[in-house]
């Protein structure tokens, strides 16, 4: 961006401040639904102790997914037995049907008293990514409680949700709760490696039964705290769409030889240069990013001059704002299709020039782009005929789910947020930068929402698939409280107006 243009934008900001009325941020309005009085979400000391102990026990079971078709099946079997012991009321209640799907995934159907109300579904996944002791402050499958935190792989992604959903239901059932609206709970066992044996099979089973859902809630969004420098207020992001993905293998084939007489370029050198070009030339950011612009407009009036002026007038300042946002890795991921080199393989011996070099690159595709568009961009950036491209797997981004005042799932999330987190007055729909099991259920509903009712700080985000993943006991208790209230809030009379969108 040229400095004359920046100066022009700054001048425009001054003029706007002097003469023009500002476009005010629009905060979400919650549409109230008729419902009976809630069972209070107050838990005894014994119940709070039991819920944290149940989570600690779940973390100690290493339900690791290594790659498609390769899981810790012993741990997955153990986990199935564990939840039966941890939540006995769920498994013995007559109006709850439990099924095991794909050997290790679990589907619960909770029958409501009013068949006229369309059911919904809560999702979570049992499996976790691998973790070794190296780099961790405590062993990753210890479930150790220290200084008010429970440590271990899966405390944030995503056994906390598995256990919180079942825990909330257990506590409701103990209090003699019978839902009006039926709902399902789907717990996949292979989300971390595509969900083909878990969520995909559950979805196929439900489709064969003709099941249609009012909405789905899965992992994805959080209450973000401290992600924007100088912005002190936490804010909630509910993901209403999800990026697509393509795993692309880049390969270079060359004649092998002895390292004592190397050619000018080797397969490794050629491939390294190609990968470097991809990293140095990211996919351009998408100018028509409406959900992100809505978020920025809601944040606008929390900033001082001149940031508030720019965010309130994105029709003029979007080029500058988006350039500034690129400095933050989270915000940059919301802006564009991301490029991540995740695997690099070549060589068999120190004195042998390898014949083949391979690199795998993961692209998370922005909802405004397609797989084919990204592939064309990549080929143009690499611009080397010696590099071969092999698509390992790919899927398109999901469309936006409705987030207006007729969108039942979204409105129920807002309603529960206001009750459990009254300090949060900024809630916005965005695109999920990761991928979840929810994409496998797109044929069952047009309303798919991704939200974890927990606070997330930058160090927490880095621990997802990284080191030292942990959750505070208080945060987990609040997550249980949120789901406890949400299930009751879903017993609503009002059905949303029908929404149609194309996949």
Helices, by number, come to 15
Low-confidence stretches: 1-30, 496-503
Structural class: alpha/beta
Q: Strands of the largest sheet, in order across it?
A: 3-4-8-5-9-19
Measured by DSSP, the beta-strand proportion falls in: 15-25%
Query: Rough shape?
Result: globular
* Biggest β-sheet strands, sense, barrel: 6 strands, mixed
Mean pLDDT: 90
Radius of gyration: 24 Å
- The portion of residues assigned to helices is 25-40%
DSSP, total strands: 21
For the terminal residues, how far apart are their CA atoms? 36 Å
How does this structure look, described?
The protein is an alpha/beta fold and 503 residues long. 35% of the residues lie in helices and 20% in strands. It contains 15 helices and 21 strands. It has helices at residues 3-19, 45-59, 73-86, 88-92, 159-174, 199-208, 267-280, 290-299, 307-312, 314-325, 329-335, 371-382, 408-420, 458-463, 473-489, and strands at residues 65-67, 70-71, 96-101, 105-110, 120-125, 145-146, 149-151, 183-188, 216-218, 223-224, 235-242, 244-253, 257-258, 338-346, 352-353, 356-365, 387-395, 427-432, 448-450, 455-456, 470-472. It has a six-stranded mixed β-sheet. A four-stranded mixed β-sheet has the order 18-11-10-20. Helix 2 runs antiparallel to helix 5 (159-174) and helix 13 crosses helix 15. It is globular. The two termini are 36 Å apart. Residues 1-30 and 496-503 have low confidence and may be disordered.
């Amino acid at each position: 961006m040229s400095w004359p243009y920046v100066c022009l934008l700054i001048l425009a900001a001054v003029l706007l401040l002097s003469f023009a009325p500002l476009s005010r941020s629009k905060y979400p309005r919650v549409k109230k639904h008729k419902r009976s009085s809630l069972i209070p979400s107050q838990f005894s000391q014994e119940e709070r102790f039991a819920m944290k102990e149940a989570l600690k026990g779940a973390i100690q079971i290493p339900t690791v997914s290594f790659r498609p078709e390769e899981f810790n099946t012993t741990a997955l079997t153990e986990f199935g037995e564990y939840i039966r012991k941890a939540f006995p009321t769920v498994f013995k209640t007559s109006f709850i049907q439990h099924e095991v799907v794909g050997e290790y995934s679990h589907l619960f159907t909770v029958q409501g008293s009013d068949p006229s109300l369309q059911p919904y579904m809560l999702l979570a996944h049992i499996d976790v990514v691998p973790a070794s002791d190296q780099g961790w402050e405590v062993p990753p499958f210890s479930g150790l409680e220290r200084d008010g935190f429970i440590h271990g792989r899966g405390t944030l992604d995503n056994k906390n949700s598995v256990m919180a959903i079942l825990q909330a239901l257990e506590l409701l059932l103990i209090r003699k709760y019978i839902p009006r609206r039926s709902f399902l709970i789907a717990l996949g066992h292979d989300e971390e490696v595509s969900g083909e044996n878990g969520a995909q099979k559950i979805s196929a089973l439900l489709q064969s039964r003709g099941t249609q859902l009012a909405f789905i809630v899965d992992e994805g969004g959080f209450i973000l705290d401290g992600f924007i420098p100088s912005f002190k207020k936490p804010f909630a992001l509910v993901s209403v769409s999800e990026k697509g993905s393509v795993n692309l293998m880049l390969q270079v084939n060359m004649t092998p030889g002895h390292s004592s007489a190397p050619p000018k370029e080797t397969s490794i050198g050629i491939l390294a240069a190609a990968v470097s070009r991809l990293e140095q030339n990211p996919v351009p950011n998408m100018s028509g990013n409406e959900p992100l612009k809505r978020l920025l407009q809601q944040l606008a009036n929390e900033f001082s001059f001149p940031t508030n002026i720019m965010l309130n007038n994105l029709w003029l300042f979007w080029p500058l704002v988006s350039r500034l946002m690129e400095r933050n890795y989270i915000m940059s991921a919301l802006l564009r299709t991301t490029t991540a080199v995740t695997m690099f393989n070549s060589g068999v011996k120190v004195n042998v020039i390898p014949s083949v070099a391979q690199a795998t690159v993961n692209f998370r595709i922005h909802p405004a782009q397609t797989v084919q568009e990204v592939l064309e961009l990549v080929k143009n950036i690499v611009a080397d005929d010696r590099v071969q491209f092999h698509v390992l797997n790919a899927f398109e981004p999901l469309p936006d789910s409705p987030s207006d005042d007729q969108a039942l799932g979204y409105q129920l999330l807002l309603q529960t947020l206001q009750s459990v987190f009254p300090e949060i007055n900024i809630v916005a729909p965005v695109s999920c930068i990761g991928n979840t099991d929810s994409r496998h259920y797109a044929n069952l509903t047009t309303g798919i929402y991704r939200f974890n009712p927990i606070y997330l700080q930058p160090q927490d985000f880095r621990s997802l698939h990284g080191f030292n993943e942990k959750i505070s006991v208080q945060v987990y208790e609040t997550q249980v409280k949120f789901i406890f209230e949400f299930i009751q809030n879903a017993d609503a009379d009002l059905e949303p107006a029908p929404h149609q969108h194309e996949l």
